[in-house]
Design goal:
Elements lengths: L8 E6 L5 E6 L3 E6 L4 E6 L6 E6 L6 E5 L8 E6 L5 E6 L3 E6 L5 E6 L5 E6 L5 E6 L4 E5 L5 E4 L1
Antiparallel strand pairs: 1-2, 2-3, 3-4, 5-6, 7-8, 8-9, 9-10, 11-12, 12-13, 13-14
Length: about 150
């Protein structure tokens, strides 16, 4: 399937049920596509910065958009939902990982320890730990509850 008439696309993601695709393009527009009919069904156009990551919550009820600097002091590399869909972890060129409450938008924790850009963050299925990787050539495991680093690889 090919979606036509778009500008350069930065990021794309499937819904967990496989019925929809969300995309973000250079014109600062997020588009929701119905795969069954191959057509755009909704747009979101009020972005002040470029979006680097689009994610669905595991229940497909929430779409997470990670703009290039939301809540960080530099570009956001990636963001992901926790398994319970109540929290988002984001990582950044500012060398930090931040944990956010989805409903309130409040930052709950800042995890520090990397000495260079944090490129990616993801969670363990139990939602109690996250793993991050950085351009400082390390992988770090973090305890979400206390914000402490468990392991450095």
């Amino acid at each position: 399937m090919k979606f036509q008439g778009l500008y350069f696309i930065f990021c794309v993601n499937f819904s967990s049920n496989g019925k929809y695709v969300i995309s973000y393009s250079m014109e600062k527009i997020t588009r929701l596509w119905d795969i069954g009919i191959g057509k755009q069904i909704q747009t979101f156009e009020d972005h002040s910065n470029y979006v680097r990551s689009v994610q669905y919550s595991s229940d497909d009820q929430t779409i997470g958009l990670c703009d290039l600097q939301s809540g960080h002091s530099n570009i956001v590399s990636y963001a992901t939902f926790f398994p319970d869909n109540k929290y988002i972890a984001s990582c950044s060129y500012d060398k930090t990982i931040r944990i956010w409450n989805v409903e309130s938008g409040v930052r709950l924790k800042i995890l520090k320890g990397h000495s260079y850009i944090v490129a990616y963050v993801t969670y363990f299925p139990d939602g109690q730990s996250i793993v991050s990787c950085s351009k400082d050539k390390t992988i770090r495991l973090w305890n979400v509850k206390n914000g402490k680093r468990n392991t450095k690889i």
